[in-house]
């Protein structure tokens, strides 16, 4: 019996109606919630251009990167470092909001009552004047892919391809790049001796489109039995995670993909995630095709905006260090101290 592996889906073949490909997609979505996709239509030169640029940005000296921290201390804007409890660098992150300002959000069609979160500006590096345009082009290509995969999941589940509200714009997205250092410390913090750089979790999105590069299988997906399955680095492939929101829409039919990142390799591990959600004024609840007869849905409805508007406070209440929370309250940059 062969060992389990991450399902590789040919998007073009599935869109052309390949029933075997759709059946494999359904199995992967219900059992793991993580797939890899090829023939996905996102230009490889665009994928490489964005990731080469952001890798160069993150390779700058720390003293230079400090200027890329959010001017208001927002944890999802600009650059920041993430130390462990011993002050050792676990990852550094660069985050981009969907819009640069409330005015931009409103011009894109977002009602004014939802634009306040964009009062915290993005941080675009002066070191690379073309970075913003390439970033937005990659973001748009990734969100387009997310919409196509959502339609494929609908077809795989034999429901109307438009059951998920892909067409209702503007979508809500977040965009984060993580750079994990080569871990040289002797650390037996988990049973199998692997150092966790990102704790196990499932994304709160509908779908997450992730790119990864490095020289080891640091990303792992959790199987139903609790064991961990490495996500290999496949040239040209992108990873697509089912988030908890899509699991709610399907009343639990599709499994939210739980995953983690462990240390290893001889070079830093770079990954980027574009997290796709519907409009923030969407009421998220199990959709009719996934609720049988008079049965009680597995999930209660909630307004997506209620989650979005409280996201920073909830994050800081769980993960924020006192000095980070203070910086956020005072509207000033926060740069964590790390052991060199």
- Rounded to the nearest angstrom, the radius of gyration is 20 Å
What is the ordering of alpha helices and beta strands?
Answer: EHHEHHEEHHEEEEEEHEEEEHHH
Content of β-strand: 15-25%
Stretches where pLDDT is under 50 for at least 5 consecutive residues are none
Q: Note the main sheet.
A: 8 strands, mixed
**SS class:** alpha+beta
**What does the average pLDDT come to?**
94
Q: For this structure, what is the CATH class of the domain at 7-60 and 127-309?
A: Mainly Beta
Strand order in the largest sheet: 1-2-10-7-12-5-4-3
Distance between the termini: 46 Å
**How many β-strands, per DSSP?**
14
CATH homologous superfamily identity of the domain at 7-60 and 127-309: B-lactam Antibiotic, Isopenicillin N Synthase, Chain
What does the oligomeric state look like here? single chain
Number of helices: 10
What does this 3D model show about the protein?
The protein is of the alpha+beta class. The protein has a domain at 7-60 and 127-309: Jelly Rolls, CATH 2.60.120.330. It has helices at residues 11-15, 19-31, 44-58, 62-65, 102-107, 131-156, 244-249, 304-309, 311-319, 322-330; strands at 7-10, 34-38, 78-83, 89-96, 172-180, 196-201, 207-213, 219-222, 228-230, 238-242, 259-262, 269-277, 283-284, 302-303. It has an eight-stranded mixed β-sheet. Strand 8 (219-222) and strand 9 form a beta hairpin.
